[in-house]
TrEMBL record:
It comes from the Bacteria. It is found in: Membrane. InterPro entries: Polysacc_synth, PolySynth_Transporter. It is a multi-pass membrane protein. It comes from Clostridium punense. Keywords: Membrane, Transmembrane, Transmembrane helix. This is O-antigen/teichoic acid export membrane protein. The keyword Hydrolase does not apply. Its main location: membrane. The keyword Transmembrane helix applies. The chain crosses the membrane at residues 14-35, 47-64, 85-106, 112-131, 143-163, 169-189, 210-227, 253-271, 292-314, 326-344, 356-374, 386-404, 424-441, 447-466.
Length: 483
């Protein structure tokens, strides 16, 4: 392996850090200019569009990363597999995009969200050219990072120059689609310079079974947070969707940043299994999990403590403060989502257990549907109860996955040992520390800075004193770079 996992993680982290900064720059501005109701309309439309995008993508992204990673040392096989998967994506897109247009014309014509849905049909059509999975399978994370930073920078500048008031709402929607087109087209052009179309051994039926399971898997995942937004839009209001969406966005920004540690290892884990190196796979898996949890637990507890302050900063005022408890619950959801990502992506998926994974995710997705129906019938559906019940469903899911992995797959992997859970115990001390700070310092920015600095210093010292393996690994990497 010529590419370092550490370097890949650095590039992925840099990318996600940039994606973290973007909402902090653009989010408050767009909320002030366009308003929470119209932003809720965009979020609601995206939720509808997502269902069709799943079918248009046909699960090729996830499947392509796994399968290309296993054969990436054989250029001819890579070319042949890429050609087959790309053509399957085009065929799926030619079916799904017209279906999406028919659907919105039947059910949403005349609705306020209809024009946005028409524009988003372009996004669905673009799915055929979304070949970033090839770049990830080849571990080309430096290109992905640089390209995305440039494209998103253009988006930021264009938004600040063109979006001035509520009348520019549709300009903002179109700008999002144009940015997507630019991002996809650059990646496609890059891949075509490295991989050639090879029609000599086209195979469709061989891949369809796994792809269908992945599509079902993706649809099952929509029974979680995407379902929440649709239910809130249908049974509460667009504002309720907005109050749910912004905490979700904060959660996803931070979680995606942390998942840089995990997701860049999928190609490497798949490659190890492709070479039948089970021992190396288990060693890397446990190290990945421990590293991830060392960052996940303090981040989640930090979000819980600073929920109100984060939303004030993000919203540029107090208009999002009503979402404070939603964000606090999302902090708990983030922990369950982190465990679920490891169990799903790093274990069951790379082990080609997507069939049983579909059963698990679909089962507890349906449990979540039942939870939501109970909330609707009792009049208790709110952004808070929506994410709380989704968190519960996710907890039941990861419990089932974990039991299956240990009892059925018999992988030497634990998420319950002290070596991993100690990071949660250390992080829980942030709560009393922050409470003491709040009693002494009343200033908004001084409180935030002290909470971050004092808790960060405490966490570092605890890891240093206990000679934590993860901390010293990072320190050694850093010192090696300096020298």
């Amino acid at each position: 392996m010529s590419k370092s996992i550490f370097k890949n993680a650095i590039y992925k982290t840099l990318l996600n850090l940039f994606n973290l900064v973007i909402p902090l720059i653009i989010g408050p501005y767009v909320v002030r200019v366009i308003g929470t109701e119209l932003m809720g309309r965009i979020s609601y439309t995206e939720s509808i569009n997502m269902y069709f995008a799943i079918f248009a993508g046909l699960g090729i992204y996830q499947y392509g990363i796994r399968e290309i990673s296993r054969i990436r040392d054989d250029k001819k096989k890579v070319n042949q597999l890429f050609t087959s998967l790309f053509l399957l994506g085009v065929i799926a897109n030619l079916i799904v995009t017209p279906a999406y247009l028919i659907y919105i014309n039947i059910y949403f014509k005349g609705a306020p969200a209809f024009p946005v849905m028409v524009i988003y049909a372009f996004n669905t059509a673009l799915t055929a050219f979304y070949v970033e999975w090839m770049n990830e399978a080849l571990e080309d994370y430096d290109f992905i990072t640089i390209k995305t930073i440039i494209v998103r920078s253009i988006f930021i500048i264009s938004t600040l120059l063109l979006i001035k008031n509520q009348q520019d709402f549709y300009k903002y929607v179109i700008l999002n689609s144009v940015t997507l087109f630019l991002n996809y087209s650059i990646s496609f052009a890059r891949i075509k310079r490295k991989v050639k179309f090879d029609f000599s051994n086209l195979t469709f039926t061989k891949h369809l079974k796994s792809l269908i399971f992945i599509v079902i898997l993706s649809n099952a995942n929509t029974l979680y947070t995407i379902l929440d937004k649709i239910m809130l839009g249908n049974h509460v209001s667009e504002n309720a969707v907005s109050y749910y969406t912004y905490p979700q966005l904060v959660n996803s920004i931070v979680n995606n940043l942390l998942l840089s540690i995990v997701l860049v290892t999928v190609p490497r884990l798949s490659n190890l299994l492709g070479n039948n190196d089970e021992k190396q796979y288990e060693n890397l898996l446990n190290k990945i999990c421990k590293t991830y949890l060392a960052f996940l637990f303090p981040a989640a507890i930090g979000i819980f403590i600073l929920a109100k302050e984060i939303l004030i900063l993000y919203g540029g005022g107090t208009q999002l403060v009503a979402s404070t408890n939603v964000l606090r619950i999302f902090a708990a959801y983030m922990i369950t989502a982190g465990f679920e990502s490891i169990l799903t992506n790093q274990v069951m998926y790379v082990k080609r257990k997507e069939r049983i994974l579909v059963v698990f995710i679909l089962t507890f997705g349906l449990v979540n549907v039942v939870f939501k129906q109970i909330l609707v019938r009792t009049g208790a559906l709110t952004p808070e109860t929506a994410i709380a019940t989704t968190t519960l469903a996710n907890f039941l899911l990861i419990t089932t996955e974990y039991l299956y992995i240990n009892l059925k797959l018999k992988i030497k992997f634990s998420i319950l040992d002290f070596g991993k859970l100690k990071y949660l115990l250390y992080s829980l001390a942030f709560i009393p520390i922050s409470y003491v700070i709040s009693l002494v310092f009343k200033g908004f920015f001084s409180y935030i800075m002290l909470v971050v600095l004092v808790n960060g210093l405490y966490y570092f010292l605890v890891l240093y004193i206990t000679k934590d393996e993860i901390l010293f690994t990072f320190l050694s990497k850093f010192m090696r770079k300096k020298s």
